[in-house]
Design a protein that fits this description.
This protein is mainly alpha-helical. It contains eleven helices and no strands. Helix 4 packs across helix 9, helix 6 packs parallel to helix 9 and helix 7 runs antiparallel to helix 8. The longest helix is centred in the middle third of the chain and has 51 residues. The mean pLDDT is 86.
Amino acid sequence: MDIATILGLAITVSAVVTSFWMEGGSPGTVLLVAPMILVIGGAFGVAVVGGSFNTALRLPVYLKIAIRGRRFDSVATIDRIVYVAEMSRREGVLKLEKELGPYDEPLFLKAMHLVIDGVGAITLQEILETEIHCITLRHQRGIDFFNRVGGFSPTLGILGTVLALVHTLSSVTEPDRMAASIASAFIATLWGVGMANMVYLPIADKLKMRHEEEVAHLELITEGVLAIQSGETPRVIRRRLQAFLPPSIRDME
């Protein structure tokens, strides 16, 4: 569970609700079903038009990634690559298959099997780069979806406000009731702007951060496997891969 995601959302919602309450507002005035349906349902519907239905079906997966994510232990990965490099120099590349475990990173397993099969360095690099590129395309679909929802949400909120104002001005004849009806009409805009800036766009940013972390980890693996194939010494491989670590951790290695 990513505490930053939950804590950040809780702080944002608490700040908005508290300030609204301090100004004398009541939660019941903003929890209106009609504008919520228009803004949330409409924004997702328009986003599906610009994307794909399969992407929309994967929303639970994207939300899980944003909330929980996946931790990448770069130090442990470097240690694993260096260990395999030592085995490669000691026993030869063909003996490496018995050193590969089922719990290794899938890209690392795939790359090492290609090395064992004798795939050339250029071909190996192209295969791994293609793998990372395809992963990027899959991740980008989720990022783009939430960016689209975040972009359409305020517009749908304005549309809801306009529709409510049209209804209010055409049906309300009592001045006392008109003021309250006009105030309620702006609830749709509130929901549109609020959902975009407090939910959709932050989720898109979080998914982008998760993607960058994973790509950096996969690039570390790619660099390490290519170094193993080229026959570099384990010490040189470790020094090369330490460039992927923050300086504070790098100094401890």
